[in-house]
Amino acid sequence: MTETTTPNLAQVVAAFHDLYPPQLAAGWDASGLVCGRTAAPVRHVHFAVDALAATADEAVEHGAGLLITHHPLLLRGAQFIPDTDYKGHVLHTLIEGQCGLLGAHTNADAAIAGVNEALCDALHLTDRTALAESQTQELGGEEHLVGTGRVGTLSEPLTLRALSERLADALPATAGGLRIAGRPEQRVSRVALCGGAGDSLFEAVRSVGADVYITADLRHHPASEFREQELVRGTGCALIDCSHAASESLWLQRAGERLQALLAERGHSITFTVSSLNTDPWDFTVPTGSAAGSASTR
């Protein structure tokens, strides 16, 4: 048996970035290593969607040398980071606990086995391609087309309700559940999706002829205009709006497995955990008005 060694932080980050290349990130993004001594040994890596006080505490309790989160802590920057500020509190907790912090945001959205691929897996989609902004990712000596969002095909058509139930079963529990625009019994086959906020991609959704679009954080006006335009065109693409955090959580387990396997190929050994904390900001919902829970009138 080949003896393995404990990698340092720089080696873990390099391996992770070989899987989820930083160059795939959008220009406005802030993915990458936020804090941590690059020479420090890393025996355990903890994964979470968000860098919050609770996930920082969790990482330190696990004895992690690195916390990898999907959402960057300093996406909008910070001039000061005292422990009285939540971002400062997170950083102080991690630094004092000898745990680094790495954000993997839009590079993990676009990459192979990333956020959107995990959603495709959960829905059993085939013939997958990037929904928009195609880029090339090299892996294993081969080049792959990746990009923003995904579009794929169900192995057999489902009703909108059945597809929604399949998605609900795959996602972690959140207060808001799923919001759905469309007839429950309409048949869907071609599925477009984008983990996280995706209402900027409506034109791409139209261009690929999707029967349903799955994303998060849909705002009233873009969603309403999309539905009205679909009615005028007579195409009727349905919408499924889910929790932002939930839609971006499914890739973390596989990311840990892939990172562990790649480091093993390089002679290193780590363990990893994935946070089970619900980092969706909403705690509960209350139906409103006499029409609460009623079907659409369209």
TrEMBL record:
Example of a GO MF term: metal ion binding
Keyword Metal-binding belongs to the record: yes
GO cellular component assignments: cytoplasm
UniProt feature coiled coil, ranges: none
InterPro entries: DUF34/NIF3 (IPR002678), DUF34/NIF3_sf (IPR036069)
Keyword check for Metal-binding: yes
Keywords noted in UniProt: Metal-binding
Gene3D superfamilies, A to Z: NIF3 (NGG1p interacting factor 3)-like
Highest taxon of source: Bacteria
One Pfam family linked to the record: DUF34_NIF3
Binding-site positions, a divalent metal cation: 70-71, 109, 244, 248
PANTHER family: GTP CYCLOHYDROLASE 1 TYPE 2 HOMOLOG (PTHR13799:SF14), NGG1 INTERACTING FACTOR 3 (PTHR13799)
Assembly behavior: Homohexamer.
Family note: Belongs to the GTP cyclohydrolase I type 2/NIF3 family.
Identification of the protein by name: GTP cyclohydrolase 1 type 2 homolog
Lineage of the species this protein comes from: Bacteria, Bacillati, Actinomycetota, Actinomycetes, Micrococcales
